[in-house]
């Protein structure tokens, strides 16, 4: 019998004999290394036998597993690993791989945890091999399902080991399939719905901090690493396939409240994703917020907080329409929140604050020019003041808070760029809103954009004391131009705002805005306009009968506070001395005319004396202070203080005839309605620009006389001449004015005639065929021969 067996074994194929020889007599001894080397050499020498070797090894391992001889099955798996590593470059490897994967599947199907771990390690080794010829028919459905189930293992003894093996297996599947478009689509929904929840389940089961020791990797740390790899490999069309099961997992396991894990997960996604696709994550999260509009306020708040934490990462890649699209979505959620609730609960208020913070974080990571566009976009969505319902007022307040959040992120350099007309005008309209909280938010927006030197806290309260911590620098030329153009509009809105409420917080907010305006824009060219503004506040307190007693006292306190402030920042000592005299007089007779502002509730029933004209700020005294300081006071002397609810532009309240007649008188010329002085340059014809002519002899005495102030008699004559010119131009007929100013235009008219005659001659030479038409036209009186007086030039 022994001889017969030996004779039969010699008749078996050589590859089977080589495979049989690698198994020891005692399974505990492990793989026979010398025989394994012979088998490897044979496989390399005869690659056509590789598929048969793999099939035979699979058959032997199957028999051993069925007979519970697990050691022999492990030896067979080890042999297949070695053959795979040695022969991976062979063209016939595909057939061997089929047997290899069947072997791995067989081991994974068994209940023995050691076989599962070994099979997983073998699959990971296979996944790291780059095959030259991909297999089109190979599928990994079983492995995805099996590895995902291992990730949820609850085995008492080897739980962590099995979960680690499952995560490693999923990582191997991802690496094997993601890089090859010809194999199975790993991004299909049925696969992602198994992979992503398995990773998240392990991430939430332990500490989320990365493990530095690579030899002691925990399931949460490895799951996070695999999730990073999966998201990093996702293209634009596949990123939503990852996000959908992620959001579903968070919903099903109620992981939004608290939202620590959700924030951590989405930060991983935003950091790992390709930068150009980060906008997709924000968009998907917003859509999920849309789908949860009926959820509890806490859930929506947590979603909004997660959005605010990750939106800054996407801001750098969002430009143009995509940036405004995100802003519009956030504003839509705010409007929905306001419209669906009759009363704002604390939870709903937290949700709105989270959305506003998200908007602010998003805007903070954009350049300043885009922040202006975002603020303008938000301003255009604010309901008009004509809508006075409670819901509209709430919406106005919420949207303006959003605008404030963006405004606090903006670094103002030039007021002209920070306040474009399309943004400033509707903002100033909202400053006149009847709702006190709305006006206060508008004031905070103006303060955020006006405060370039961090003076907002310093000027937060009304005071007549010095501000030692005040920071200031002279305004630039562009800021002065902005003040001349729009400063009057801002100050008019401030006066209207101050007259709407006697609340201390509302008046203090308006004072803060006015004080910042003065500190940032005060100079010799603007100080007169600011003084008219201060006089306007005082005039409202004195003349508007609808204001209460406490309200009037507060306005008087604000006016003296602003006067002291402008005296200090402008450095006009005469003005400061006058302001201090008023302050001392009020301290002796009427302390209610001084800061701090009075609380209406505390002062109810008390009688306050308001008939104190000698304690008011005097306009003539202010003009004398400016003149004594060597400054021009004409605008202050001739201009009217700001009035309440003034609809026209305060900076252009006077007739253009008056301003031009002022130019004629200021030029110290002897011209009247029948005399033209011949000075038709651009300076004299520009509105608001005055030209002072020097004497013909340019010596020291002549220049001294030219710079000297005119006497009272000369001033009175100039005023009479001015009024006469104004009456004549207002009441006279146009033809009469042309006839009376016609003679002094001879010089200009003759020059124009010469120029047009020369052009007519050239036209006759070059176009002889139109000679008759030209002669006929020359007989008519050209329109340019009509003389207009200088006062009608613009």
Rough shape?
Answer: elongated
Helix content: 55-70%
The end-to-end span amounts to 129 Å
Low-confidence parts: 1-7, 208-214, 648-696
Put simply, the count of helices is: 36
The description of the largest β-sheet is: none
Mean pLDDT: 81
How much of the polypeptide forms β-strand, as a percent range? under 5%
Q: Would you count the extended β strands for me? A: 0
Query: In terms of structural class, how would the helical and strand content be classed?
Result: mainly alpha
**If you compute it from the alpha carbons, what radius of gyration comes out, rounded to the nearest whole angstrom?**
44 Å
Organism: Drosophila rhopaloa
Pfam families: EFR3_ARM
Family: Belongs to the EFR3 family.
Protein name: Protein EFR3 homolog cmp44E isoform X2
Topology diagram in text:
Blueprint: H1 2-10, H2 14-21, H3 33-45, H4 50-66, H5 70-86, H6 93-109, H7 113-127, H8 141-151, H9 159-178, H10 189-203, H11 219-233, H12 239-252, H13 260-272, H14 278-291, H15 297-315, H16 321-339, H17 346-364, H18 368-381, H19 390-407, H20 415-418, H21 421-430, H22 436-450, H23 477-498, H24 504-521, H25 527-543, H26 549-570, H27 573-589, H28 619-628, H29 634-638, H30 656-666, H31 682-685, H32 700-707, H33 712-731, H34 734-740, H35 746-766, H36 771-779
Helix pairs in contact: 2-3, 3-5, 4-5, 4-6, 5-6, 5-7, 6-7, 7-9, 8-9, 8-10, 9-11, 10-11, 10-12, 11-13, 12-14, 13-15, 14-15, 14-16, 15-17, 16-17, 16-18, 16-19, 17-19, 18-19, 18-21, 19-22, 22-24, 23-24, 23-25, 24-26, 25-26, 26-27, 30-33
């Amino acid at each position: 019998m022994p001889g017969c067996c030996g004779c039969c074994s010699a008749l078996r194929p050589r590859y089977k004999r080589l495979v049989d020889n690698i198994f020891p007599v005692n399974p505990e001894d492990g793989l026979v290394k010398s025989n394994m080397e012979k088998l490897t050499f044979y496989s390399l020498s005869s690659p056509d036998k590789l598929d048969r070797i793999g099939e035979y090894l699979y058959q032997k391992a199957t028999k051993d597993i069925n007979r519970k001889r697990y050691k022999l099955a492990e030896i067979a798996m080890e042999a297949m690993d070695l053959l795979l590593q040695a022969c991976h470059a062979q063209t016939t490897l595909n057939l061997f791989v089929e047997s290899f994967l069947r072997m791995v599947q067989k081991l994974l199907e068994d209940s023995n945890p050691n076989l599962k771990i070994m099979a997983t390690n073998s699959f990971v080794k296979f996944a790291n091999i780059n095959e030259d010829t991909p297999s089109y028919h190979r599928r990994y459905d079983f492995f995805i399902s099996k590895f995902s189930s291992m990730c949820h293992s609850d085995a008492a003894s080897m739980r962590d080991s099995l979960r680690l093996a499952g995560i490693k297996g999923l990582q191997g599947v991802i690496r094997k399939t993601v890089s090859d478009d010809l194999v199975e689509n790993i991004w299909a929904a049925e696969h992602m719905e198994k992979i992503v929840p398995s990773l998240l389940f392990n991430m939430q089961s332990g500490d989320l901090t990365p493990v530095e020791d690579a030899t002691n990797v925990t399931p949460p740390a490895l799951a996070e690493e695999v999730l990073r790899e999966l998201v990093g490999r996702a293209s634009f069309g596949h990123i939503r396939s990852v996000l959908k099961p992620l959001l579903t997992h968070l919903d099903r396991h109620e992981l939004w409240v608290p939202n620590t894990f959700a924030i951590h997960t989405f930060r991983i996604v935003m950091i790992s994703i390709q930068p150009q696709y980060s906008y997709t994550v924000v968009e998907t999260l917003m859509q999920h917020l849309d789908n949860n509009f009926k959820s509890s306020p806490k859930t929506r708040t947590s979603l909004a907080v997660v959005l605010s934490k990750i939106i800054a990462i996407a801001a750098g890649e969002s430009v143009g329409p995509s940036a405004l699209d995100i802003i519009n979505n956030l504003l839509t959620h705010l409007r929905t929140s306001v419209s669906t609730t009759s009363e704002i609960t604390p939870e709903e208020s937290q949700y709105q604050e989270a959305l506003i913070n998200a908007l602010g974080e998003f805007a903070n990571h954009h350049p300043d020019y885009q922040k202006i566009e975002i603020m303008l976009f938000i301003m255009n969505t604010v309901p008009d003041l004509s809508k006075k319902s409670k819901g509209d007022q709430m919406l106005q307040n919420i949207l303006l808070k959003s605008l404030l959040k963006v405004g606090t992120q903006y670094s103002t350099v030039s007021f002209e760029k920070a306040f474009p007309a399309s943004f400033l005008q509707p903002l100033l309209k909202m400053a006149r809103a009847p709702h006190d909280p709305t006006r206060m938010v508008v004031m905070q927006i103006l303060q955020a954009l006006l405060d370039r030197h961090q003076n907002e806290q310093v000027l937060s309260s009304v005071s007549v004391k010095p501000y030692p911590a005040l920071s200031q620098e002279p305004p630039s030329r562009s800021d002065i131009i902005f003040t001349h153009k729009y400063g009057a509009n801002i100050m008019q809105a401030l006066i209207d705002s101050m007259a709407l409420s006697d609340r201390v917080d509302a008046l203090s907010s308006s004072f803060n805005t006015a004080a910042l305006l003065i500190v940032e824009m005060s100079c010799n060219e603007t100080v007169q306009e600011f003084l008219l503004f201060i006089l306007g506040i005082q005039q409202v307190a004195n003349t508007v009968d609808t204001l209460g007693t406490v309200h009037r006292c507060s306005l008087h306190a604000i006016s003296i506070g602003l006067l002291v402030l402008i005296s200090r920042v402008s450095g006009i000592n005469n003005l400061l001395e006058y302001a201090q005299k008023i302050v001392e007089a009020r301290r002796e007779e009427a302390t209610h005319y001084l800061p701090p502002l009075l609380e209406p509730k505390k002062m109810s029933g008390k009688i306050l004396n308001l008939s104190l004209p000698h304690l008011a700020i005097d306009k003539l005294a202010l003009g004398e202070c400016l003149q004594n300081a060597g400054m021009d006071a004409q605008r202050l002397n001739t201009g009217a203080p700001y009035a309440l609810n003034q609809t026209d532009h305060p900076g252009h309240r006077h007739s253009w005839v008056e301003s031009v007649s002022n130019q004629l008188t200021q030029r110290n010329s002897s011209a009247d309605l029948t005399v033209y002085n011949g000075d038709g340059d651009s300076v004299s014809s520009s509105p608001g620009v005055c030209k002072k002519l020097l004497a013909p002899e340019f010596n020291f005495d002549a220049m001294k006389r030219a710079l000297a102030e005119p006497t009272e008699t000369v001033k009175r004559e100039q005023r009479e001449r001015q009024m006469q010119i104004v009456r004549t131009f207002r009441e006279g007929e146009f033809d009469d004015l042309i006839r009376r100013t016609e003679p002094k235009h001879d010089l200009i008219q003759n020059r124009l005639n010469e120029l047009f005659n020369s052009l007519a001659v050239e036209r006759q030479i070059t176009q002889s065929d139109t000679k008759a038409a030209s002669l006929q036209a020359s007989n008519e009186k050209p329109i340019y021969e009509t003389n207009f007086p200088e006062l009608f030039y613009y």
